[in-house]
C-alpha cells in the first residue's frame, strides 16, 4: 500500500467525519458556527508528537484522516499505546488530567487534524447543549474503550491481547478507515514496535503469538497485511464470543 496522503476538506460542509465526530449535532445545520469555532486544518507527518506527555495543550483536535496513538510511559520506562484513534475521533480535551496518568498523543501515519482552541471550545460547549451532549457521549465512548484495554492489559494473556487488538483495529478501520480494509484483509500501517506496545508485549513475545495464530489457521499475515481467515475463532481467543 502506498504512503498515505492525508486530505483536508474545503470547509465543514465537505468534512468527511462531520457525522461521526463531536461536531455531529451540527453536521447538517448551523455548520457556520462550527466553521467559526475552528482555527485551522493541519496536516502532520507520521511519528509527530501532537501532545507531549505531561504537557497541557491549548488545543483540541478532530481527527480528519490518518491514525494516531494515545501513549503513556510505563513505570518501567517503556512506551505504552493505550488506544489507537482513527478518523472521527476527538482528542486533547481531557489529556492530561490532574487525577489521571499523563497521556500523550502522536501520529502513527501521516494525518490531518481539525484544530480548535481548547478555551474557545469549552466556551462553546457551555452555551450549546447539543454540543455538550455530543462531547459527553464521545468522551464516555473513548473512556470505555480505554478502560477495556487497560483491564485486558492487566488480566488478559498475550494471545487474548493480540486477538482483541486485531479485531478492534479491523472493526474500527472498516467503519472509519475503509481504505485499509479489503474483504477479510486489513492493512496495518503500524510497526512491530507499535503492535507490541499496544499489547504490552515484547517484540519477541508478539512474534511468537502471531506465528501461533497463523499456524492455527486463525490469521495469515505478510508484512503489514493481515488476513482474518477464521474470524469466529479469533473472537473466541479474544474473549468476545
Give your account of this protein's structure:
The structure is a single chain. The chain is α+β, with helices and mostly antiparallel strands and 241 residues long. It is built from 7 helices and 12 strands. It has a 4-stranded antiparallel β-sheet. The protein has a 4-stranded antiparallel β-sheet with strand order 2-7-4-5. Helix 2 packs across helix 3 and helix 4 crosses helix 7. The radius of gyration is 18 Å and the shape is globular.
What does the secondary structure layout of this molecule look like, with pairings?
Blueprint: H1 31-37, E1 38-44, E2 49-51, E3 59-65, E4 68-73, E5 79-85, E6 90-91, E7 104-107, E8 111-117, H2 118-127, H3 129-155, H4 158-176, E9 181-182, E10 185-187, H5 192-199, H6 203-215, E11 220-222, E12 225-227, H7 231-238
Antiparallel strand pairs: 1-8, 2-7, 3-6, 3-8, 4-5, 4-7, 9-10, 10-12, 11-12
Order of helices and strands: HEEEEEEEEHHHEEHHEEH
- How many whole angstroms does the radius of gyration measure? 18 Å
Form type: globular
Beta-sheet strand percentage?
A: 15-25%
Q: How much is the average pLDDT?
A: 89
Low-confidence regions: none
Number of helices: 7
In short:
The protein has 241 residues and is an alpha+beta fold. It contains seven helices and twelve strands.
Any key phrases for this structure?
241 residues, 4-stranded antiparallel beta sheet, globular
Amino acid at each position: 500500500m502506498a504512503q498515505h496522503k492525508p486530505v483536508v476538506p474545503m470547509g465543514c460542509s465537505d468534512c468527511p467525519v462531520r457525522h461521526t465526530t463531536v461536531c455531529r449535532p451540527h453536521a447538517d445545520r448551523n455548520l457556520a458556527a462550527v466553521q467559526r469555532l475552528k482555527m485551522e486544518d493541519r496536516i502532520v507527518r507520521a511519528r509527530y508528537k501532537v501532545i507531549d506527555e505531561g504537557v497541557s495543550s491549548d488545543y483540541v483536535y478532530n481527527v480528519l484522516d490518518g491514525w494516531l496513538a494515545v501513549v503513556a510511559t510505563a513505570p518501567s520506562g517503556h512506551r505504552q499505546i493505550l488506544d489507537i484513534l482513527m478518523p472521527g475521533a476527538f482528542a486533547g480535551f481531557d489529556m492530561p488530567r490532574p487525577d489521571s496518568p499523563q497521556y500523550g498523543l502522536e501520529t502513527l501515519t501521516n494525518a490531518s487534524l481539525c484544530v480548535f482552541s481548547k478555551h474557545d471550545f469549552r466556551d462553546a460547549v457551555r452555551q450549546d447543549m447539543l454540543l455538550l451532549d455530543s462531547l459527553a457521549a464521545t468522551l464516555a465512548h473513548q473512556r470505555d474503550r480505554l478502560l477495556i484495554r487497560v483491564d485486558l492489559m492487566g488480566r488478559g494473556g498475550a494471545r487474548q491481547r493480540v486477538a482483541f487488538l486485531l479485531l478492534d483495529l479491523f472493526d474500527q478501520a472498516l467503519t472509519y478507515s475503509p481504505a485499509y480494509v479489503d474483504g477479510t484483509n486489513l492493512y496495518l500501517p503500524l510497526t512491530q514496535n507499535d503492535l507490541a506496545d499496544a499489547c504490552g508485549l515484547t517484540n519477541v513475545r508478539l512474534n511468537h503469538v502471531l506465528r501461533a495464530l497463523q499456524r492455527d489457521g486463525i490469521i495469515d499475515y505478510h508484512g503489514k497485511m493481515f488476513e482474518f481467515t477464521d474470524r469466529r475463532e479469533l473472537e473466541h481467543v479474544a474473549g468476545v464470543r
